[in-house]
Design brief:
- The longest helix has 19 residues.
- It is built from eleven helices and eleven strands.
- The strands form two sheets. It has a six-stranded mixed sheet with strand order 8-7-9-6-10-11, with helices on both faces.
- By secondary structure, the protein is of the alpha/beta class.
- It comes from Streptomyces tubbatahanensis.
- InterPro entries: His_Pase_superF_clade-1, His_PPase_superfam, PGM_Phosphatase, RNaseH-like_sf, RNaseH/PGlycerate_mutase, RNaseH_domain, RNaseH_sf.
- This is Bifunctional RNase H/acid phosphatase.
Length: about 425
C-alpha cells in the first residue's frame, strides 16, 4: 500500500488554511532608532504571501519585537481571519510571554501583548522559538525599515530586497543593536514566572467552509499523516474506558509484539519522515518501537492524547450503563456532553485535535508523518477529513496497532487513503 499516489478526483472536507508568521524587531541603541519586520508564508507551500516593515522612531528592542509580531498577525488576519497561525521568532521573551509561560510586567509591552493576543483566537495561534539564523528574512526587513527611517523616508514593499537577499544566504551577522539582537531590556524579572491566565475567546472550531470538488490543478506533495493506534494494553481486550484521566497503562506483551510488527512494516515501506505521539505511555512505547526501527526521534504532542473519560475510566461500557445510565445516554446523544465526573466531550476533543492537526501541518508541510495516538483522536481526524457528522465516530472500527492514512493538500482539501489496516498483524 502506497500513501504517495496522485491526488484523487474528489477532495474531502477542507481544513483551515495555515500560515507561518516570522517577525523581528530591533533598536540601534536600545532604546534608540527602532524598526520591525514581519513576513507571512503559506505553511504548505512556503510561498511568501506578505511582507511588512516600519520605522518606529525611538523605542527598545523588545517593543520593536512586539510591534513586529502584531504587524505579522494583522497581515495574516487580512489574508484569512479563520486561518491557523504558527508564529516563529528568535525572541525567547516574546515567545514565552505570548505562550503564557512568563508574566508580562513591562508597561510598554503589556498593551502590545494584549493587542497581539486579540488578533486571532488564542487557540488558533502557536508560538515557536527559532535561532536567529532561521529568522533572517524578518531581520532583514526590520533593518530595511531602520535604514529607511535614517534617510527620513518610509519603508516601501516594492523597494524591498529582503527576500532576495536572504534566500539561501548564510546566517546574518550584524552588529550590536541590529534586529534580532537580544538586549538587556528583557523584562527578566518575569522569566520563569508561570501565569498563563484564562483562555476565554471564541474558538472557530475544527470545521471550515466547503470548497470545490472535482479535478483541479496539481497542489504539489501533500502532507500525509499515517495514523497509528497504539498497541494493546491489559485493558484493551476487556474493552474498558482507558483515557487520559486514568491509570496510563503500559503495553502488554501482545501490544509490544504489535508495535514490533508495525515497525517492521513501516521500515519496509520507507516513507515515514517524522514521528509524533500522544504523551500517554502506551503511545510513547509504540512510537519508540517504530522510531527506533526507523532511526528517528519521537516528538510528543499533547493534543493527541485520548479523551478524559472522567469517572468512567477503567470501567466497561456495561458497567457505565449500569452505574450512570442517564449520563451515558446524554453523552451518546450529544457531542457537547462530558462523561460523568468532568471528563471531555467529543466537541472538546475535536477542538484540541484540530489544533494539533493544524500545528503539525505547519511544522511538517509536504512530509509523511507517523502520528501515534488513540481511538478517539484518530477517528476524529478521519471524521474531520471527510466532513462527516460526529455520529460517524460510532460507525468506525479501529483495532489496536491499526494503520490509517490521511493526505492534506495546500488548497485545504483532505483525502482518506487508508482506514484500520491490520494486514501487518496477520
Amino acid at each position: 500500500m502506497s500513501w504517495g499516489h496522485p491526488r484523487p478526483e474528489t477532495g474531502g472536507a477542507p481544513v483551515r488554511r495555515t500560515f507561518v508568521v516570522e517577525a523581528d524587531g530591533g533598536s540601534r541603541g536600545n532604546p534608540g532608532p527602532a524598526g520591525y519586520g514581519a513576513v507571512v508564508r503559506d505553511a504548505a507551500s512556503g510561498q511568501t504571501l506578505r511582507e511588512t516593515a516600519e520605522f518606529l522612531g525611538h523605542a527598545t528592542n523588545n517593543v520593536a519585537e512586539y510591534r513586529g509580531l502584531l504587524a505579522g498577525l494583522r497581515a495574516a488576519h487580512e489574508l484569512d481571519p479563520h486561518a491557523a497561525v504558527l508564529v516563529r521568532m528568535d525572541s525567547k521573551l516574546v515567545v514565552e510571554q505570548m505562550s503564557g509561560r512568563w508574566k508580562i510586567k513591562h508597561p510598554d509591552m503589556r498593551p502590545l501583548a494584549l493587542e497581539a493576543g486579540s488578533v486571532f483566537p488564542p487557540q488558533a495561534v502557536t508560538y515557536e522559538w527559532i535561532p536567529r539564523a532561521e529568522n533572517k528574512h524578518a531581520d532583514r526587513l526590520a533593518n530595511e525599515a531602520m535604514d529607511a527611517g535614517k534617510r527620513g523616508v518610509s519603508w516601501q514593499p516594492g523597494a524591498s530586497t529582503a527576500e532576495l537577499d536572504t534566500a539561501g544566504a548564510a546566517p546574518a551577522t550584524a552588529g550590536a543593536g541590529s534586529a534580532g539582537a537580544e538586549s538587556a531590556d528583557t523584562d527578566s524579572a518575569d522569566a520563569g514566572s508561570a501565569d498563563p491566565g484564562p483562555t476565554t475567546s471564541a474558538d472557530p472550531g475544527p470545521t471550515a467552509p466547503a470548497v470545490r470538488v472535482g479535478w483541479g490543478p496539481d497542489m504539489g506533495t501533500p502532507t500525509t499523516f499515517v495514523l497509528l493506534r497504539h498497541g494493546e494494553t491489559v485493558l484493551t481486550p476487556e474493552k474498558r474506558f482507558s483515557g487520559s484521566g486514568g491509570s496510563d497503562p503500559e503495553l502488554s506483551a501482545v501490544g509490544r509484539r504489535q508495535a514490533a510488527a508495525v515497525a517492521d512494516t513501516l521500515a519496509a515501506r520507507g516513507t515515514i519522515e517524522a514521528v509524533v505521539a500522544s504523551p500517554l505511555r502506551r503511545c510513547q512505547e509504540t512510537a519508540a518501537a517504530v522510531a527506533g526501527r526507523l532511526g528517528l526521534s519521537v516528538r510528543t504532542e499533547d493534543g493527541l492524547r485520548e479523551t478524559d473519560f472522567g469517572a468512567w475510566e477503567g470501567l466497561t461500557f456495561a458497567q457505565v450503563r449500569e452505574r450512570h445510565p442517564e449520563d451515558l445516554q446524554a453523552w451518546l446523544g450529544s457531542a457537547d456532553v462530558s462523561p460523568t465526573g468532568g471528563g471531555e466531550s467529543f466537541d472538546a476533543v475535536a477542538r484540541r485535535v484540530a489544533r494539533s492537526r493544524d500545528q503539525l501541518l505547519a511544522r511538517y508541510a509536504g512530509r509523511t508523518v507517523l502520528v501515534v495516538s488513540h481511538v478517539t483522536p484518530v477517528k476524529t481526524l478521519v471524521r474531520l477529513a471527510l466532513g462527516a457528522p460526529v455520529q460517524s465516530l460510532f460507525r468506525m472500527e479501529l483495532a489496536a496497532a491499526s494503520l490509517t492514512a490521511v493526505a492534506y493538500y495546500a488548497d485545504g482539501n483532505a483525502s482518506l487513503r487508508l482506514l484500520n489496516d491490520t494486514a501487518h498483524l496477520r
